[in-house]
Amino acid sequence: MTPCGDRGYYDCCTVQCGCSMSHVFDQLLVLFQDVHVMIFIGFGFLMTFLKRYGFSSVGLNLLLAAFALQWGLLVQGLWHLDEGKIKVSIFKMINADFSTATVLISFGAVLGKTSPVQLLIMTLLEITIFGINEHLVAEVLKANDVGASMIIHAFGAYFGLAVARMLYRPALGNGHENDGSVYHSDLFAMIGTVFLWMFWPSFNSAIAEPGADQLMAVTNTYFSLAACVLSAYAVSSLVEHKGKLDMVHIQNATLAGGVAVGTCADMNIGPFGAMIIGFVAGIVSTLGFKFLTPILASNLGIQDTCGVHNLHGMPGILGGIAGIVAVALGKKDGSAIMQAAALASSLGFALVGGAMTGLIMKLPFWGQPPDQNCFDDSIYWEVRT
Amino acid sequence: MTPCGDRGYYDCCTVQCGCSMSHVFDQLLVLFQDVHVMIFIGFGFLMTFLKRYGFSSVGLNLLLAAFALQWGLLVQGLWHLDEGKIKVSIFKMINADFSTATVLISFGAVLGKTSPVQLLIMTLLEITIFGINEHLVAEVLKANDVGASMIIHAFGAYFGLAVARMLYRPALGNGHENDGSVYHSDLFAMIGTVFLWMFWPSFNSAIAEPGADQLMAVTNTYFSLAACVLSAYAVSSLVEHKGKLDMVHIQNATLAGGVAVGTCADMNIGPFGAMIIGFVAGIVSTLGFKFLTPILASNLGIQDTCGVHNLHGMPGILGGIAGIVAVALGKKDGSAIMQAAALASSLGFALVGGAMTGLIMKLPFWGQPPDQNCFDDSIYWEVRT
Amino acid sequence: MTPCGDRGYYDCCTVQCGCSMSHVFDQLLVLFQDVHVMIFIGFGFLMTFLKRYGFSSVGLNLLLAAFALQWGLLVQGLWHLDEGKIKVSIFKMINADFSTATVLISFGAVLGKTSPVQLLIMTLLEITIFGINEHLVAEVLKANDVGASMIIHAFGAYFGLAVARMLYRPALGNGHENDGSVYHSDLFAMIGTVFLWMFWPSFNSAIAEPGADQLMAVTNTYFSLAACVLSAYAVSSLVEHKGKLDMVHIQNATLAGGVAVGTCADMNIGPFGAMIIGFVAGIVSTLGFKFLTPILASNLGIQDTCGVHNLHGMPGILGGIAGIVAVALGKKDGSAIMQAAALASSLGFALVGGAMTGLIMKLPFWGQPPDQNCFDDSIYWEVRT
Fold it and tell me: Where do transmembrane segments lie in this chain (chains A, B, C) (predicted)?
């Protein structure tokens, strides 16, 4: 099986059957569609949990993603000019969706507290900075990060947290009446959760080498997610009053296994290794929602609406560390030092880039909503009744 | 790559590998499933925006589509008898879903004002007339319409509008208390919007020639939709009070780019050409919802519940015109005159066929709901509470 | 086309093109994803119809399924050890989802009346017993059951009914205020219905022989489901007051055609044969909901919350009988006697296994909810407002 040209295209069949194009187009199109569903349905509905912010969650998600993928294709195309031209392929469309994911993760941190214009500015800047870090990690450091625990999840989370810190609103310290869910908004959010959960194996395998590596990325992610569900439910029940489950944990922490296994997804860690990663991620994420998010808000001034630190931040770092260990143990070719450098680079670009972006977003002419109109669709949408 | 037999089946691999069947079956099955999701989830939930008509929207959508695809396969089979038999293939199942789409578009125009029996009659007649026009356009005029801007979208919309004109209800001129949305019904509708948006590239490429043409149909549609989202949001904000967004525009106009790029989808118009088409479609569609729909209702007696004129009608015509221009510019083999004839044929069959169908539907024994029970599930469904 | 190794893997292309792995991985991955959507979205949301039990429906569905697929892979792996090891493949992951389906069907029978711990115990036992029966049917009796009418649907339903009988609650005989739907909960349930309906062809064809048999399984299921929708709507309208439709029938009975055609899906029964099976299944299922479910509850003490007897039980038996007839008529190689034995085995293991499991679940230390807290999320979940 000889890759030719763009990754994901093979000439083996071309020579012998003359029908490679349609077959390979196939495979990537399927993975692209799954990733696309995660971006537009998954992220969009996951954020509809707020009682009065559903229009913005799914609507601004659509706007930002449609803008981000065009900008992402452009930035990516400029990095990889082909005879002076930007060429498009399904593979590049997958990568554009990936860069979009970082923006949507950061969106979760500032959900309900920013205007559409602020978010479009964040998109422009974040995707540009993502492009620089991604180039550094993949091309210079040559680190492994097939499922992008570091360059998407950790990057997007800490970028968003840095923005949130810059946009700190002391008046929201005592909570806001709309910063919560109602029964049906929690059910809408579960649409997002379940689609993300189901298609995560496609996300982590989409840019893996076709064949055994890609198959492994699918199965490792599948096992990690399955184990993560069990630990997230168990811990949620343990930390809540009377052993009850909390919807916030179920909506989010059940997905941490997909994040955390990302870097190692195409490494030979075995089903058991994947399950350990997922199991730990479920615990860390649930505990983060319960204990860490309130501390970040009250002590550090980081108001993380969706708790992206628990779903993408800590599990992303966990994934980066797992990658360092796995490479050190020889589960994949590479250098543990370069893996560590990739993690540091992703965190550094995220925090510095996010802080700078937050400062720009804080300029007073972008229409940032006043405190009392936070978490409320009616400031940006015509809301009937 | 030599097509053999039915479009979409190849013998290149059969000869050399002996495994063509399963591979090609594959590719078409994937596209079929995406189109199927658009028909049943996309159209079904898009229409749930009405506050008290969700059961009928998604429920009658299922009934009509299940009936339409059987009738569509039959009509299609009678046109293309194979040794005196009707043969079934995934390709024909895709075409049956396509003919079903016309019915569901027309359903949108009369949503809330017709009985199930009336709708089944409309299905019978519309699919038959669709079959005649489709045969004329594809076989006689040999026009290009891979994504069916003309033969599905424009046809379905103007057919439905002609029916709506025949079924004009003066008493609804001042509005109806149930002809509107509530918060959660608008969120259900977004499920439909987003699934339609994500899978539209599959719709426009499903019957394209596999290989480069099909890949182009995917990417052109992808670019058109992305650009359309931006113009729909921008125009919605410009025309609404205080720069707010209107959910009706977001639910519908963001999809106009998929409609309008249909005819040109497999033509060599380039990403930039596709984006221009999508951008214009988003503007035209949003302006139509804001300014044209009220005029159609009050001046012409055309009460278009879902605004299909704005989502499918005008963007469909735009797509037909773009096809004429693109063929004239040599972006695809064909004749600009034949493209124009195909557009005229589609509009003519739609308006005449729709008017005749509307007259038949107006006969007094089909159980048409009285004015005061319009837009209300409880006339056809057991509604608890 | 020569299968090699695990079912679903071919060496034809390996020899000639060297690229079989990625192609075949493709095909199975696509079918796996469709089945996965049925398990997590389909079953999960189908059960959200209860007004106050949506968190548990979709949330416990996720927990049980994530647990069941791991346990199912383990049980399956122990039956089919490969050099002393349990090997994983996409094919085995599909089978794990299949064994999970039995648990989710049984979950429907006891929905709202059991604790998470009781359900986890049921999962452990049911998958083990499923594994025994599946081995008997497939390996010893060598019966056909490609879409698993008998070994999944009938088995899961009668297992759940036997459990429900053991857990009979006389106090619920007069109904419970939360044992019903509200408007929006019925719409959430339709998300489940429609995804199940659309992807059922993939379910019934996932483990068929690739090529003509698999294509036939897709088309037969497609025809059966389309016919079933028509009969379900017709009968629902006939048996309800004033010709109205009942959402319970539409949500469930429209799917009975997928169940009933399962055993015959890859047999040469023709589109017309498939449609007859689906048509009859829609009638039987709707009548069951209307007339049989109340009798089972009042006379036999079987309180079947979701009516799984009507969606999976009777249509599953119908599918088993159709399989006997089809094999007797030579539509597929096999023995009608062995088909009958397979049906009897599935029912026997289900009833005996379910009764035993129910007795164990009845032990007083699993946290079974008291009568007044049945069908209520707030006993296991933090519910805001």
Answer: 30-50, 62-81, 93-112, 119-138, 150-168, 180-200, 220-239, 272-292, 312-329, 341-361
